[in-house]
Amino acid sequence: MRIEHLINGKSTPARDYFETVNPATQEVLAEVASGTAQDVDAAVSAAKDAFPAWAAKPATERAKLIRKLGELITKNVPELSETETRDTGQTISQTRKQLVPRAADNFTYFAEMCTRVDGHTYPTDSHLNYTLFHPVGVCALISPWNVPFMTATWKIAPCLAFGNTAVLKMSELSPLTASMLGQLALEAGIPAGVLNVVHGYGKDAGEPLVAHPDVRAVSFTGSTATGNRIVQAAGLKKFSMELGGKSPFVIFDDADFERALDAAVFMIFSNNGERCTAGSRILVQKSIYAKFAERFVERAKRLTVGDPLSESTIVGPMISQGHLAKVRSYIELGPKEGATLACGGLDAPSLPDAVKNGNFVTPTVFVDVDNRMRIAQEEIFGPVACLIPFDDEAEAIRLVNDISYGLSSYVWTENAGRAHRVAAAVEAGMCFVNSQNVRDLRQPFGGTKASGVGREGGTWSYEVFLEPKNVCVSL
Ligand code: NAD
User: Fold this and answer.
1) Whose alpha carbon is nearest atom 10 of ligand 1?
2) pLDDT (tens digit, 9 = 90+) per residue, 45-56?
3) Which residue intervals of the chain bear CATH 3.40.309.10?
4) Quick one: fold of 248-433?
5) Residue limits of the Aldehyde dehydrogenase domain (predicted)?
6) Could you report the predicted ipTM of this complex, rounded to two decimals?
């Protein structure tokens, strides 16, 4: 199978192709167009030409088409989720029940929202100020390989609904569902050129896209290192930068122990640990630390690792051999830094024959981790948990904030005052109290510090996809 670019509504071949591989089996799934600056130019030009007519459409008409795209995704959940699972190694239970349906919700939600964009008024005795919100123009949307379909739609839905046109570049490691999405958008009646999809590597296709002078806004989700490069290459544009994380999961001794345990296991091992908001630094108050560590390790040992297409699998393969090597390097590093390996490690898990060549990691838990160790400070992005003991609230807050990242955070306590104090003190874009990560499409999603700039979701998506204009009228 060959996956081509989608430019101006047409399947467009490339000069070169690369292979995308099933990380559970190493089977080649498709040859994928390897985009160049020339392909990017053609896609941006198509998006620029399509912009005036699309922006001029009444919001209610755009909404109909966007809603239709959501319906088509819902109709195609089985095929989309199976493709996503084969391409990324995310388990089928996650893609079919959560991630692909969430993609459809993104379109339904922003279809509704684009018909309700309102403004502000600032009256004075002599003048009336009011704001108008205009679409920005051509937007570059860049998605990573983890949760790629959902992440892409989280950008495409507001981008298009608010009247912009887009060039989407998916990760070279997970291009398949984006290509299906481009076709579904045409089937929904979204005009040619409004959504263009260019495949390829970051350097060859991503960089010319973000640097393109006709691109007005960049919505990027990916690593902090790439985010830094993009900001430098792009020049003056609107930005949303959703970057890496090393989010603290703090459990006080008055927490609901069983619920906190369930959530802690879920937040580090679901999505194969390849989750930007993973609770990868688990801080536990000393009075319950030993009991928690024992139960947590017990649970980690019981997780089913294996074929991501099997309903019972909890942890699938790492996306690539390169990423597998990176995760393993941290597992090797932990004991050298003085952490205790409580379970997992470098031995491969026992696997069914069909996936015995996959990029698997045994769920790993390090206990007695010091927050300054690299395994506690750097994003591993795999099924590797670090348990860190703390004495009291003040120490917990100090450890939580002693890191360059600031994406999400989790606090578990039955003491309401403490919950609010800690939530206010954490340096992170999001704080979940007595909860795992639960998404509401209205909430501001994003991080601070090295985890990003800007927020997306609900009216927060205005920041990148709409340009406010103030009109001041003399009375
Ligand atoms: P990555 O930064 O390597 O790549 C992300 C995308 O950027 C890919 O499409 C890649 O091709 C492209 N790219 C690479 N170099 C580029 C360049 N110079 N110019 C333009 N584009 C370029 O990230 P990844 O490994 O694909 O994804 C994992 C990272 O994403 C993790 O750090 C994770 O935390 C982060 N992430 C963040 C969020 C969030 O919402 N904050 C969500 C998911 C993933």
Assistant:
1) 202
2) 999 999 999 999
3) 248-433
4) Aldehyde Dehydrogenase; Chain A, domain 2 (3.40.309)
5) 16-471
6) 0.97
- Residues 378-397: pLDDT tens digits? 999 999 999 999 999 999 99
CATH number of 2-243+451-471: 3.40.605.10
Q: What is the dihedral of CA 470, 473, 474, 475, to 10 degrees?
A: -130
Nearest CA to 389 out of 431, 340, 349, 427 is that of 340
Classified as helix, coil or strand, 8 is: coil
CA nearest ligand 1 atom 21, residue: 206
| Whole-number Å distance between alpha carbons of 440 and 324 | 32
Supply the pLDDT for residue 80.
98
Span from the CA of 292 to the centroid of ligand 1 (angstroms): 33
Quote the ligand 1 centre to 221 CA distance (angstroms): 5
Name residues contacting ligand 1 (CB within 6 A): 142-146, 151, 169, 171-172, 201-203, 206-207, 210, 221-223, 226, 229-230, 242-245, 276, 379, 381, 407, 447, 452
Active site residues: 242
Q: What is the 3-state secondary structure (H, E, C) of 84-152?
A: HHHHHCCCHHHHHHHHHHHHHHHHHHHHHHHHHCCCCEEECCCEEEEEEEEECCEEEEECCCCCHHHHH
Rounded CA separation 44/42 (Å): 6
User: Residue 391, class by beta-carbon neighbours within 10 Å (0-12 exposed, 13-18 middle, 19+ buried)?
Assistant: exposed
Q: Are 152 and 170 in contact (CB under 8 A)?
A: yes
Instruction: Determine which residue's CA is closest to atom 43 belonging to ligand 1.
Output: 276
Indicate which residue's Cα is closest to atom 30 of ligand 1: 222
